[in-house]
Design goal:
alpha+beta, binds ligand EN5, globular, 3-stranded antiparallel sheet, Aminopeptidase, binds 2-oxopentadecyl-CoA
């Protein structure tokens, strides 16, 4: 069934439910001198390229490959359109390795036809903090699909991760592979219902008119929580303390330090937005919410070409009810002209999704670890990790 994945150190379907298997690494690291020193062989028409994402030209090539060939929904109506600034941010966190940004070109034309990337991340599983790679943006040009290029790309990124003495990875996918540690549901909150219906992202509900639908999703003009404001650079220490404490309750979560928080959570225009609540009395930072910007190309619609989507990222509530905090996040997203606010049912998100009029989408997201076994599947609410 899975000719490639059967050969890899991942949980296998045949082992599901086997309680005798221990949690933790599946294979021990090998000495670095035993890691293959040369890249894997590609079919002879193609060559590897290490991408310098700071170069405008390279960044453009990766951007264009993804914009034309990356993930679509199951009816091929929308395709993710990660912006260049977003890709730079996603690929260059503290301690990143350029060698983990891997392209494939056609030798003769130099056209980029495939890509895969990793970034380093410390991820905690129960009480075990592990240096991992987060693997993302695996993409093979539409015309080169089903030729078994993906397994070569995965083996090559694995080799380059091993060369940095890292032996575990985390990744998510919309497809089922051996074997998810958790399966999450996408939820969607309409901000611009008319456009969403016009482009086929959502439908008019039964017994609903357009004007009733628009009224249903109306939001206040401005946020309601006193002390709610954009995060600033001087907030990094307080936000780090808040988020570290919050994430400690989940079974699998990133282990963020101040540098990570500055990179991943300090607002970056049209990439990541973060807000916090500073108590008007004590000036303490008590609550936090964030979302990232990932538009989708609308395929084949005469009137619209881009769907502006916000994706819930990390949220922490200690004093402001999470429901109210997320309602304020919806209000700012609406002010900023997003069409839809998306969220997964991870962390404590179930506590606000229905009440804030999110509806379940037709997409699922499966979470995976490479070379690390988790004995039983986790509930989405036990996951404290959001990948881009
Ligand atoms: S998930 C998004 C992945 N990208 C897309 O869906 C874009 C559109 N699709 C494509 O570009 C986020 C192609 O269809 C791709 C497959 C490239 C997906 N993950 O070349 P073949 C990520 O980026 C397996 C893993 O013939 P193709 C996460 C498939 O099961 N494996 O297929 C990436 C089969 O293996 P099997 C996937 O359609 C995580 C084999 O590929 C997969 O031309 C990567 C078929 O290959 C997926 N999303 O190209 C793993 N989709 O055993 C990282 C298919 O079943 C692991 N496959 O025969 C960790 C590495 C680091 C470790 C470090 C210690
Ligand atoms: C790894 N970092 O399927 C990324 N999206 O529901 C790879 N559906 O947008 C992961 N099909 O349900 C890829 N509208 C996995 C996701 C791939 C993209 C994907 C789904 C997630 C999605 C939309 C559009 C469906 C179009 C037809 C959807 C319904 C919204 C409705 C709003 C009102 C309340 C009820 C729900």
């Amino acid at each position: 069934r899975h000719k490639f994945w059967e050969t890899q150190p991942v949980g296998q379907f045949k082992d599901v439910g086997d309680t005798s298997l221990p949690e933790g690494p599946i294979e021990a690291p090998t000495p670095l001198s035993e890691v293959k020193q040369e890249p894997y062989n590609l079919p002879s028409l193609y060559e590897w390229v290490t991408c310098d994402i700071n170069s405008d030209e390279m960044c453009n090539e990766v951007y264009t490959l993804l914009a034309n060939n990356y993930v679509e929904d199951d009816e091929n109506m929308f395709r993710f359109n990660y912006s260049k600034e977003f890709l730079r941010w996603a690929l260059q966190p503290p301690g990143y390795f350029k060698s983990w940004h891997i392209g494939v070109r056609v030798k003769t034309s130099k056209k980029m036809v495939a890509f895969i990337s990793g970034v380093p991340a410390k991820i905690r599983s129960r009480d075990d903090v592990v240096n991992m790679a987060e693997i993302n943006f695996l993409c093979v040009h539409k015309k080169l699909r089903t030729k078994r290029l993906a397994p070569v790309m995965i083996k090559e990124v694995t080799r380059r991760v091993h060369l940095e003495d890292i032996w575990q990875a985390a990744y998510t996918a919309g497809v089922v592979l051996p074997t998810p540690i958790a399966t999450c549901q996408y939820w969607h909150r309409s901000l611009n219902p008319k456009k969403l219906i016009d482009v086929g992202f959502s439908r008019l509900g039964a017994r609903m008119t357009m004007s009733r639908t628009i009224k249903l999703y109306k939001l206040p003009e401005s946020t309601v929580t006193p002390g709610f404001r954009k995060m600033e650079i001087h907030d990094v220490p307080a936000v780090t303390r808040l988020i570290r404490n919050y994430l400690s309750q989940f079974v699998v979560a990133p282990d963020f330090d101040e540098n990570d928080v500055e990179h991943w959570l300090l607002p970056k225009e049209d990439v990541v937005d973060s807000y916090l609540v500073e108590s008007p009395e004590t000036h303490e930072v008590t609550d936090f919410c964030s979302f990232y910007t990932l538009p989708s190309t609308i395929l084949g619609n005469p009137n619209y070409s881009l769907l502006k989507a916000a994706y819930s990222f990390y949220n922490v509530s200690t004093m402001t009810p999470l429901l109210q905090l997320m309602n304020d996040a919806l209000i700012v997203a609406k002010q900023k002209d997003y069409d839809v606010f998306n969220a997964l049912d991870v962390m404590q998100n179930e506590t606000f999704l229905k009440e804030l009029k999110f509806g379940p989408g037709d997409g699922k997201l499966h979470y995976y670890l490479y070379n690390y076994r988790i004995r039983n599947g986790l509930k989405p609410s036990e996951l404290g990790l959001v990948l881009l």
